[in-house]
Amino acid sequence: MSGEGQSGWDRYWFGEVSLVRLAVFRIVMLAAALYAVWVFRTGVFQHADGLETSFLARSWNPIYVLEALGVPPPGPTAARVVFAVLLGSIALGIVGLFARTACAVAAVLTFYWIGVHYSFGKPHHDCVALMFGLLALPFGPVGGRLSVDSMLRRMRAARSSGAGYLAPPDAGAWAGLPLRLTQISAALGYFFAGATKLVLAGPGWADGYTLQAIMLEYKSAWSGVLADQVALCALMSVGLLFVQVSFPLVFLTPLLRWFYVPMAVVFHLVAMQTMATGPFLTLWFTLVCFIPAERVPAWFDRTLAGGPAWRRIAVGAMLVAFAALTFDLYFAQVPVWLAATLVPAALAVGLRLRGRAPEDVRFDPDQPSARRAVALLDAADWAGRLRFVEAPGAADGLTACGVSGRAAWRRAAARTPFLLPLAFLPLGSG
Amino acid sequence: MSLLASLLLGSALGVSGPEVLKPIGGPPLRLADGRLVRLVEGEPHELECTTTEGPGEVYDAALDPAGLIFVAAENGLFVIDGRAEALDPIQVEDGAPAGLARSLHVDAQRRLWIATDEAVGVLDPSFYWGRTLGADELPGAGPYRIEGRPWGLIVYGSEDKLRYRPDAGDAPRVVELRVDGEPFAPDAEVELRRDYRDPIRIAADAEAPGGATLRYRLDGHHVWRAMEGELVLDRVSPGRHRLDVVAIDRDLNRSRPASVALVIDYPFYYEKGFVLAVGAGLGVAATAFFLLRARRSGRGSYARAVVSTGVALVIGVQVLAGLVPHNKAWPFVGFSMYSDRYKEGDAIHKPVLVGLGPGGGRWTIPPQAVGVAIDSPWQVLRPVIDGGASSSRELMATYRKRFPKKNIVGLQVQSERIRITGRGPIPVAPLVLSHFREER
């Protein structure tokens, strides 16, 4: 859908936005949902199984939605069924198979799972933006890119020699809806978190003693160093209030995202290290809604593959440190087998994003297997590392990197972030 | 100097004289010439104080079985323990004896007995509320002094002395509970429904040796608050609540609670029907608006109109939740965290569960270590405080199953405290909210 003739409201919510951006958002949000679901499983299962009742001073006090709908807490069997379906739907959503349905199921069941956990205790804030983002995901074309759905779609087109197996769509209508609703939810959260401090406690909240007291009460690794300095606490308080209350300014211009998104991450990091808030990792992940992921490869090219060495080293070190910290926090909670699967995949994605000149892939458009291989490669080539050239009569149907046939497929697949693990499958062989 | 402290010290340290106190987990303290000092490798070290004027002349100090040391001094009552570096003033809640405290004694039930110039009384050392003995029970005029004995204490007046045996007579009891003038028996299972706007008036009659006082709590809070005369609960939040009232005798023995369940009706705007009607009305109005707009411009669709309505409502309710936070409305919860304000001189409290080992060992036990998922440590701590020895034993049994190598012989619930001062944060003695140690 073109934006021409649309009102501002329609353009904002339903206009065309990058499908890669939405796809990356889908993957990250579902990874965040997996984290939350996994962390809360102990509480839900303990109540479902009725374990340790003498120490479970928590009773069923449902959140309003569950109360209004008359939804009871799950029993032992129901909890396990929900958990299994939830994990399955998250996995399908992440790989993008039946993406829209999987996202819808994952959103509803994640709401139920977290809602049940909160109904046995106190609702918290860290999953608010996550929840709105998840619930909005199925409204967008979430399987349009970086998904098994899109690959299958293009493979089918390639098999029937129909058009559309090359040049995947860059943008889609409604793709911005989940991103923008999540952005607004996150911004409202930060704004009200700061505004309530100012309204309820007054500007005196920033005199340093309150932050000092909070750090001392929720003592963590860095509390001792920072809480000793009232003047430093006062400075941090002012900074914290400024970032929280002014966060909605992030919508004024995309340039401000370079300030507010890193500041939000720093805020959560410092809060975790001084106030024992926990990492707020779900909210941290949610901030990906502000990042135009489709431009990341080009940014990598500009920043890491070119420019002065000091900048490359500094930016590279920062990114590596941030990634290491995020992985450390994430995999401290989720199971080891998942880490063993995802860490190499993420490393492969990161390495494949390095700047390089595109490699020509020459293929015979008359050979169905070559078309299928090219469709698959093109669908996965988020970073634009391959350039496809029609070459009737190409050797073995496919040539790339000076080799042909299956070897060409492997070389080309290894250049795309998402096909590296599949590079050794016999797909695309002549 | 209290006898209990003297007995504990002499054997523990092999030091003679009644002036040395041995706190758990720290070097001994010596009281001499009106000064309390810490002995580090035999050398005296001055103790800090969180008040600028300090304690002044120290008259007496008493060791609590839970490890605290209470200090009677010229400038009031103070507390310290083995790890804290500074004396911290005790802020007495209510019921303490008037006058300047001159001598102290902590008995085996952890009651802090205090003799002052003018009166004799007893304080709960966990929450610092207490009772004062009647003038007719005292041996003539003051100033008074007390000495602990295994059976009770001896109270010395200026001219006479009294052997005081606590816990004599009948247990305290609540005779009648009245809610808005309507009387109920203390053991009745009562459930009352009230409008959230109406104040609820609670009164009670009680009997106890030495006269009963009353305390209450709402929803199982660990602090029992004083109930003097009629208690008026105003603007109780909607939902289900439980009010407990207990009678306290002059020795701080507590009756069984008389309880009443209060069901406070939600205001009409929280009623399910009203919320649904308003929500549906707004939804229909918004949908109509978006549909009309789409039709007029000729470029809309029904799907976009419906989704636009949803988006507008979701954002609108999020803003509403930010203005009126209510966490049960999750995910529309608002954000009112960390909005309390602290000032210089305030104390920071952190509730913790502490395992006690033989020979003075102690360690913090995360509530999750006993295998439960929690939102707040109070979920685990409150039953321990309320349940006394039986709850502590039960929790220790669970802990032993999970950590068989840990030699746990006791359990405390502490509120660790740090005082914010102009000189920076100073760790002070905790409040020991419950203390249990297995008999050897």
> Uncertain regions of chain B: pLDDT < 50 for 5+ in a row?
1-18
How would you classify the quaternary structure?
heterodimer
CA radius of gyration of chain B: 28 Å
- Radius of gyration of chain A, rounded? 24 Å
Across the major sheet of chain B, the strand order is 5-9-8-7-6
Strand arrangement in the largest pleated sheet of chain A = 4-3-5-6
Major beta-sheet overview of chain A: 4 strands, mixed
Tell me, what's the shape of chain B? globular
Order of helices and strands of chain A: HEHHHHHHEHHHHHHHHHEHEEEH
- Extended strand count of chain B: 29
Approximate strand percentage of chain B: 35-45%
User: Roughly what fraction of the amino acids of chain A lie in strands?
Assistant: under 5%
Largest sheet of chain B: 5 strands, mixed
Task: Provide structural commentary.
The complex is a heterodimer of chains A (430) and B (440). Chain A is mainly alpha-helical and 430 residues long. Helices cover 60% and strands 5% of the residues of chain A. Chain A has helices spanning 8-14, 19-49, 64-69, 76-95, 99-119, 128-136, 148-159, 176-201, 209-217, 223-227, 230-246, 257-275, 281-286, 296-304, 309-331, 336-352, 368-380, 406-414, and strands at 16-18, 171-173, 359-363, 386-390, 398-400, 403-404. In chain A, the strands form 2 sheets. In chain A, strands 4-3-5-6 form a 4-stranded mixed sheet, with helices on one face. A two-stranded antiparallel ribbon of chain A has the order 1-2. In chain A, strand 5 and strand 6 (403-404) form a beta hairpin. Chain B is of the alpha+beta class. In chain B, 19% of the residues lie in helices and 37% in strands. Chain B is built from 4 helices and 29 strands. In chain B, the strands form 7 sheets. A 5-stranded mixed sheet of chain B has the order 5-9-8-7-6. A 5-stranded mixed sheet of chain B has the order 19-25-24-21-22, with no helix packed on it. In chain B, a hairpin with a 5-residue loop joins strand 26 (347-356) and strand 27 (362-365). In chain B, helix 2 (272-297) crosses helix 3 (302-323). The radius of gyration of chain B is 28 Å and the shape is globular. Chains A and B meet through helix 1, helix 2, helix 3, helix 5 and helix 6 of A and helix 2, helix 3, strand 26 and helix 4 of B.
